[in-house]
Amino acid sequence: MITVKNLEKTFGDHQVLCGIDETIEQGEKVVIIGPSGSGKSTFLRCLNLLERPTGGEVWFEGKNITDKKADVNALRQKMGMVFQQFNLFPHLTVLENITLAPVTLKLQTKSEAQANARRLLERIGLWEKAQAYPGQLSGGQKQRIAIVRALAMNPDVMLFDEPTSALDPEMVGEVLELMKDLANDGMTMVVVTHEMGFAREVATRVLFIDEGKILEQGPPESFFESPQHPRLKDFLSKVL
Amino acid sequence: MSWLQELGTNLLIWLQQVGDSLYRTFVEKDRYMAFLKGIGTTLEISFFAVLLGTAIGVFVAVVKNMAKKHRFLRPLEWLLDAYVLVIRGTPVYVQLLILNTVVFASVQNKILVAVITFGINSGAYVAEIIRAGINSVDKGQFEAGNSLGLRDGTVMRLIILPQAVRNILPALGNEFITLVKETSIAGTMAVNDLTKAAERVGGATYDLYTPLLSIAVIYFVLVFGMTRLLNLFERRLAKSDNR
To answer: How far is A79 from chain B (nearest CA, A)?
Structure first.
């Protein structure tokens, strides 16, 4: 579904990604871990071109999206993204947040989009907040709404950029629960996170990125029980 | 007691003179109409100049913001930078003279010339106000809009600008107030604004002192009223702030 070939990204003199090759298949739940500044967020952001790679290619559903002529907005409609800081639109109600993109892009009529939003909000138990503004919600509620907002576009893959890092500890659980539900529904997911428990439980594959390279990867059992690379061993000994 | 009586008499004489001056300036031959029309013209020029200035300002600010990502806008950005630089670097009076006597010499509607001049002038300042307002919106908002597949222009219109407005309005109000005062030079090209009305009335009554002091008070009241209105408006905005 997503194929990355020799991906490179440089900010000024600083090379953040040093040639990453990776393929993510439909239905996979790939969790990316690594120390801060390792390039894992940049890697994720290159997948939907929020960061323009400075080298290499990204292919999505059979198209080279790093090609200059590729329709970036069309591909982004099929790739949902969830941010660390939620990035809900504070001037719009929860319902408007969810329906804005599908209605503006004429993918759904207003009533279709609202019905869809209602179904999604009821699923996460927040339908009664439909007319509330983001400022009136807790962090956990905001992030779950942000996930729903991305889902409303019916994406083929969901990208999560440290979705629980900005949350108070007691709210991490509700967001992870929703992500697990999504995983169980068969959604293809790429998740950058520090939640090792989530990686163990949900991931079909875990990647360890450090200094702009994938140093090790594998299914969570072997990845966590018998890490090979010394850097990964060191990292796991610090976080587990 | 005689000095007190003298003072009283002088005061009475002075008051009568003031009354006479005011009568001649405002009441005689219905001269107050000139002032009322002057206020109308001043407000008309200010209002439409602010509209034009805001339109130009939004355009300049949005293009400059988009040019960061879209290379083909670079030449236009360069042009707009030059516009802002030139307008902010030269006196508005000189701009008015140039536009009136060189560029729009054949245009008879001098109010229109004034609106265009002050609009173009104000646009340069408003552009900076709006640019700052756009920059004050978290860049994650832009990314969130983009990540949903919305085009940059749509993100700007539906997500960024509505949020920037809160930060823009107070400064824009100040710009409006500045503009009301600046339009007082429009009279130099035969526009009958408030200042020009005072000069004409003064010419007719051989007393410039009274009409000039009067319009100073009128300008002050106008600006003071606008300041209060703006404060009220800002407080309203703060109240509806539910973030």
So the answer is: 8
Neighbouring C-beta atoms of residue A231, cutoff 10 Å:
17
**Global pTM?**
0.83
B163 touches chain A (CB under 8 A): yes
Which B positions 24-53 lie with beta carbon below 8 A of chain A?
A: none
**Positions in chain B whose pLDDT score sits under 70:** 1, 239-243
Count of structural domains within chain B: 1
Cβ contact, residue pair A73, B151, below 8 Å: yes
DSSP codes, chain A? -EEEEEEEEEETTEEEEEEEEEEE-TT-EEEEE--TTSSHHHHHHHHTTSS--SEEEEEETTEETTSTTS-HHHHHHTEEEE-TT----TTS-HHHHHHHHHHHTTSS-HHHHHHHHHHHHHHTT-GGGTTS-GGGS-HHHHHHHHHHHHHTT--SEEEEESTTTTS-HHHHHHHHHHHHHHHHTT-EEEEE-S-HHHHHHH-SEEEEEETTEEEEEE-HHHHHHS--SHHHHHHHHHH-
Range of the domain at B145: 32-183
The confidence score (pLDDT) of residue A80 equals: 96
CB contact under 8 A, A79 and B242: no
Chain A residue closest in CA terms to B154: A104
Q: Which A-chain residues 54-93 have CB contacts (< 8 A) with chain B?
A: 73-81, 83, 85, 87-91
Does residue B9 lie in a domain region?
Answer: no
**Which residues of chain A neighbour B147 with C-beta distances below 8 Å?**
48, 50, 76, 79-81, 83, 150
Looking at the domain assignment, is residue B149 inside a domain?
yes
> Which CATH number do you get for residue B131?
1.10.3720.10
Per-residue pLDDT at B1: 67
Q: Is residue B178 part of a domain?
A: yes
Percent of chain A with pLDDT over 70: 100
Q: A150 and chain B: CB distance < 8 Å anywhere?
A: yes
> Mean pLDDT for chain A?
95
Q: Which chain A residues are Cβ-neighbours of B160 within 8 angstroms?
A: none
CB contact under 8 A, B141 and A101: no
Residue B217 maps to a domain? no
